[in-house]
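ARCHIVE RECORD
Type: protein–small molecule complex
Small molecule: zinc ion
Source of inputs: curated submission
Record status: active
Notes field left blank by submitter.
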Amino acid sequence: MGFLITNARIIEKNNVLRIVEILVEDESIAAVSETGTHQAKETIDAKNMLVLPGLVDPHVHFRDSGVPNVAQKAKEDFSSGSKAALAGGVTVALDMPNTVPPTVSVQDYKTKAANASKTSYCDFGLYAGASNDNLNEIPKMLDAGAIAVKLFMGSSTGNLLVDSAEAQEKIFALGAELNFILAVHAEDEECIRFHADFYNDKKIRSHNEVRPAKCAETAVSNVIDLVRKHNNPTYILHVSTAKEVELIRSAKKTLPVFMEVTPHHLFLNESDEETQKNRVKINPPVRTEKDNEALWIALNNCTVDAIGTDHAPHTLDEKRKPYWEAPSGFPGIETRLPLMITAALEHRTTLEIVQRTCCQNPATIFRLPNKGFIAKGYDADLVFVDLSEERRVEDEKMFSRSKWSPYAGKNLRGWPSLVYLRGRKVYEHGTFFGPFGKEVTKN
Ligand code: DOR
Ligand code: ZN
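STRUCTURE (tokenized, with ligand):
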């Protein structure tokens, strides 16, 4: 039956840390109370460790379409990706549709969902992919359970691209009609192509030069114009520049737009390309120190709604290729929580903001019932963190099959030591139990 977690330190309003006991019954939290209120057959002493709601990662690329693909499996699949998720405290991962084959029809969707249901160690939701010509399939994928719709306005990994203005507009209109969350990769394709042609035969100093800020800024203002017209709920992925922050901050006053930032756009910039080269090649690119600063300010004044990792498990071998051939993206699902908690402990942000942007807001924005909060009635998805434990990021210790991290060598605090998923222990000090992951439903 149930069990009682005692001496759990949870984060409350105004960044207050409170010691509580959490009663878990079946898959849910039955009570959060003062110590000594309840009794249960089994008691787990959290020993004043920080206990967070299971993290929601609204942006991952596990790559697993459910169609066997040997080359891909060597890099990641739902099993390895979801283990990496748990090691990073993530109990719900929302997976992107730019797989091989892409998730653009209800049949693709069902194949992917069936496989993930069998193999995932964490709960998951799947995006439906928008293409230039699959408008009829989108409602069917949503009926089959798709958590949201992903629109690539600019091309990135895979060939999922909606570059026709007419098709883009129809997707925004459909979003208003069906009230789904539209998640947009906002980089302008024409701008990307123009710069790629220009730099084609030149020496490349920085990916940020080849795929400049203005491509993202043009696309974001285009997105805002479309939302102004259609008023459909829109989640702008991986915002990376100071200018985009300003555009979105003002749009948010009247429009249903949400803003995501990634850890890498907070922590990395062009100067990291000097040492890390193509390892930190990503779309949108890591920008400038000024942009980092603008994103930290936006995080701390609550303009940022959510932190998504954009976990993209390319291998180091692929990253060693020359600039034009090296793929964009890198793994990040295991390091989001330690990076953010360490930043909070260094007073660059607060634990309350970390909890809000990594757990609560993504659950609320994506309308996940019973996820994201430590409160009565919510799923008992719980992450224990020993704040005194410091650990170095090491490539070999990553659970993602891609086996590396752009943060290797950094000493971080905030690593999960124990994770519960719907009342079940699924991770403890590097050991996994499962797979027990289920597809999430939406309100
Ligand atoms: O750098 C990126 N990599 N940006 C994306 O939008 C996609 C991702 C991937 O799937 O590899
Ligand atoms: Zn992505």
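CURATOR ANNOTATION: The longest strand covers residues 3-12.
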